[in-house]
Design goal:
heterodimer; A: alpha+beta; Alpha-Beta Plaits; 3-stranded antiparallel β-sheet; two-stranded antiparallel sheet; 4 helices; B: 426 residues; 13 helices; 5 strands; globular
């Protein structure tokens, strides 16, 4: 069954010079060949400066004596939309709550930063860091010690009372 | 100065053969790198720069990768021809270099060594014969793959190569008329005697030859055989690992060989400006030219002359290689009908007319007794310049290479068909 065809008439220039067009194209590429605009970032050697609000690998803040600041209140696993935080809280002799198990699965994490936002004692933070490649999937589950070992700067979250970050 | 002879001639011959072959292979390898780097610069990228300093070890990494990859053989492929095709493509692209002189003769204690593997008396005919052999590999590879895209690529390659071989051969005829011989050493010698390279007195032949050589090597804008956007990758769609690599090596080998050929035929080969490096075997003597009374002037070969002329030859060949890459990353692919119409309707008549023109001019110049030399060359340069200008003028008027819009008159008009509702009612 034949279909209806709409014929679109192209503009017909009187005479098209493909020779001159080709030569001007050659000139253009020659200019780029001898003087290339090198926009590619040479990644491992040249590092991008991450923005202050970049949300990457987590950091657990710690007290001066090496204890985690976390009080195991359970707010971060509750608020976490990706359900990537596993927290088992405990209590010591003085009645201080502390995390017995604190694990973040960096594969499941969506880096929304809500754990940092919700934390009442500013213990868990997302950080300005993204190079966390590993050889096995199991290595992406960061336990408490590993979260405390992270030494990159943590993220400055957006503050509604200071919207421009001053 | 005696030519080298006896046992030393065989030693020199094998040294030259291995040496030149190694250099050609290396140049081919580094042309692949140059292609990737230059294309990157043209597109404002960096290109491969990770393997070794400036990416200089990239060809080796590519080679290792291709050797270690799995060879696939399509179940429906014709096994014998499938394996034969890469060999058939690879060999002709390499052996053509044998007749191209690469430098001035080198004096050794045992005698003077010609810097050419084999100074065959049939010279350019040997090159033509082998360069057209390569198309068999392409067609066989496309056919034996039992893949319709590969087959289409092979078909296109054969049609295109046959078409442009004609223009290539015809533009060569002018060179042969000027040189009076088909030996490549003689062609270089005649350019030295003329005092100018054939690119000037035979400018239109030079342009036609360059265009045909682009088509013969299946490079953009004539890469109908590959045509990634239309035919997957054309004739080598089904090839993998080292067999694919053989096709790539042969493509670049053709580039290197035809660049060297263009340099030899039209840019004087290893000749450098001035008469200091002129050398040619004439009646068993290495001469630099003829004195006014017809007696010979003996040449004085030296190792530094050989080295300098080799650098000159390498520079000329490199220039054409860069042009190849530069054109490839600038111009879009021709449509198939444009390739055919350019080949048969433009290149062939132009080359034929130009052969007649040059033949007539040479006849006239010989009749009025202009001596073979700079004045002879200037007269031909003027005639060729006018011919080239006329050719360019005609090409530029949009009468020959045109876009789709200008060819509307040739197309079949689409008739307006009744609408669906009208048909349903009837």
């Amino acid at each position: 069954m034949p279909i209806s065809v709409k014929v679109i008439h192209r503009p017909e220039p009187e005479s098209t010079s493909y020779l001159r067009a080709a030569l001007s194209g050659m000139a253009l590429t020659f200019r780029h060949m001898v003087n290339p605009v090198k926009v590619t970032q040479q990644y491992p050697e040249e590092q991008t400066e991450l923005h202050p609000r970049w949300r990457g690998t987590h950091v657990m803040e710690q007290h001066a004596d090496g204890r985690p600041k976390c009080v195991a209140c359970g707010l971060c696993p509750t608020v976490c939309p990706a359900n990537c935080i596993r927290l088992v809280g405990g209590e010591d002799d003085q009645g201080n709550r502390y995390p017995i198990v604190y694990e973040i699965d960096e594969f499941r994490c969506i880096f929304c930063g809500m754990c940092q936002e919700v934390c009442p004692v500013e213990a868990i933070h997302v950080g300005r860091h993204f190079e966390n490649a590993e050889y096995t999937r199991a290595r992406f589950v960061y336990d408490l010690d590993r979260l405390m070992e992270q030494d990159h700067p943590s993220t400055n979250l957006w503050d509604p009372s200071d919207p421009t970050g001053e | 100065m005696e030519p080298i002879s006896g046992i030393w001639a065989y030693v020199a011959m094998s040294l030259k053969a291995t040496g030149i072959f190694t250099v050609v292979i290396l140049v081919v390898a580094y042309t692949t790198l140059a292609e990737r780097r230059v294309s990157a610069w043209i597109q404002d990228r960096r290109g491969p720069n990770r393997v070794g300093p400036f990416g200089l070890l990239q060809p080796i990494a590519d080679g290792i990768k291709n050797i270690l990859k799995e060879e696939t053989l399509p179940a429906t492929a014709s096994r014998f021809f499938f394996v034969l095709a890469p060999i058939l493509v690879l060999v002709p692209s390499m052996v053509t270099f044998a007749v191209i002189p690469i430098a001035a003769p080198l004096p050794t204690p045992a005698g003077v060594v010609d810097m050419v593997i084999a100074d065959l008396p049939i010279g350019i005919l040997y090159v033509l014969a082998f360069s057209s052999l390569a198309v068999y590999g392409v067609v066989l590879g496309g056919w034996a793959s039992n893949n319709k895209y590969a087959f289409l690529g092979g078909m296109r390659a054969s049609a295109q190569m046959v078409s442009y071989e004609v223009a290539l051969g015809l533009s060569l005829i002018t060179v042969l008329m000027m040189a009076g011989n088909v030996t490549l050493t003689e062609i270089v010698w005649q350019q030295q005697q003329l005092g100018m390279w054939f690119a000037f007195p035979l400018s239109l032949a030079f342009i036609l030859f360059v265009i045909s050589a682009f088509a013969e090597t299946n490079r953009l804008p004539f890469d109908m055989a590959e045509a990634e956007s239309e035919l997957v990758t054309g004739y080598h769609t089904e090839y993998s690992a080292m067999k694919f690599s053989a096709f790539m090596i042969s493509e670049f080998g053709h580039m290197v060989t035809s660049s060297a050929l263009m340099a030899t035929l039209f840019l004087g080969g290893w000749d450098l400006p001035g008469t200091w490096d002129d050398a040619h075997w004439y009646q068993g003597q290495l001469i630099a030219g003829f004195a006014a009374d017809g007696s010979v002037i003996l040449a004085n070969p030296a190792w530094w002359k050989t080295l300098l002329t080799f650098a000159g030859f390498a520079a000329k060949t490199g220039f054409f290689l860069v042009v190849y890459i530069w054109v490839r990353w600038t111009l879009p692919r021709f449509r198939y009908d444009q390739v055919m119409s350019l080949g048969w309707k433009v290149m062939l008549p132009t080359a034929l007319a130009y052969v007649m023109l040059i033949a007539g001019t040479i006849l006239v110049l010989d009749e009025i007794g202009v001596p073979w030399g700079f004045g002879y060359g200037l007269a031909l340069t003027a005639v060729s310049g006018m011919a080239t200008f006329a050719f360019m003028f005609a090409l530029d008027r949009g009468r020959t290479i045109t876009g789709a819009a200008a060819q509307r008159g040739q197309r079949v008009e689409v008739k307006t068909t009744p609408t669906a509702t009208a048909r349903a009612g009837s």
